[in-house]
Amino acid sequence: MNKVNVLLFGLCLVTSTVLANLNVIADLGGDDASPYFEGINRQTGSASLPVAPPAPISAGEAEAAMLPVITPELTPGKVVARPLQLPGIGALFIVGDDEVSRAWLQANAQQLKSRSAVGLVVNVSHLSGLQALREQGLGLPMVPASGSELARRLQLSHYPVLITDTGLSQQVAP
Q1: Where are the beta strands (DSSP E) in 109-150?
Q2: Which residue, 2, 94, 97, 133, could crosslink 124 as a Cys pair with Cβ 3.0–4.6 Å?
Q3: What is the three-class DSSP state of 138?
């Protein structure tokens, strides 16, 4: 008998919670949010209006949208060469839009090109500065990107620098 009473009491609790109504705490009105969700989980044959594809943008516009790039952890200056073990990294150099980097690029462009090096421009404000660095580097591939994480991981505070799988240095050997 005791088990039956406990079972009936438990059944009463479950049924009362199942029959509970939803309480609206606040309805502040506002705009319909459904347009924000049209692209998510779209079903074929949906009654919603077709969405126009985004307009293509040129490479120059895309790069201009990434600017300015500022890496406060990295400034132009002297880098003490040291060995590293970074197998597979290839040749990566870091520069900025400043006179020190331009002089370094001019002096080392041929050696960097022979190593198939790729550059990160970690401090650049305008697209014209990025293009000038590319011209100075004789067409070496360079992309604007923050170097904060790289600076932290490699304990690096200055540039220009060449990073290879065996070390980092401002001296570029052929």
Answers
A1: 118-123, 142-144
A2: 97
A3: coil
- CA torsion 119→120→123→124, rounded to 10°? 70
| For residue 10, pLDDT beyond 70 | no
- The answer to whether the CB of 116 falls within 8 A of the CB of 91 is yes
Residue 168 and residue 173: Cα distance in Å, rounded? 11
For residues 8-17, give the mean pLDDT.
62
Lowest mean pLDDT among 7-11, 47-51, 145-149: 47-51
CA 130 to chain centroid, in Å, comes to 18
Q: Please, are residues 79 and 159 in contact by the beta-carbon 8 Å criterion?
A: yes
pTM for this model (two decimals)? 0.67
Q: Quick check: 79 and 170 in contact, CB under 8 A? A: yes
Q: DSSP characters for 89-113?
A: ---EEEEESSHHHHHHHHHHHHHHH
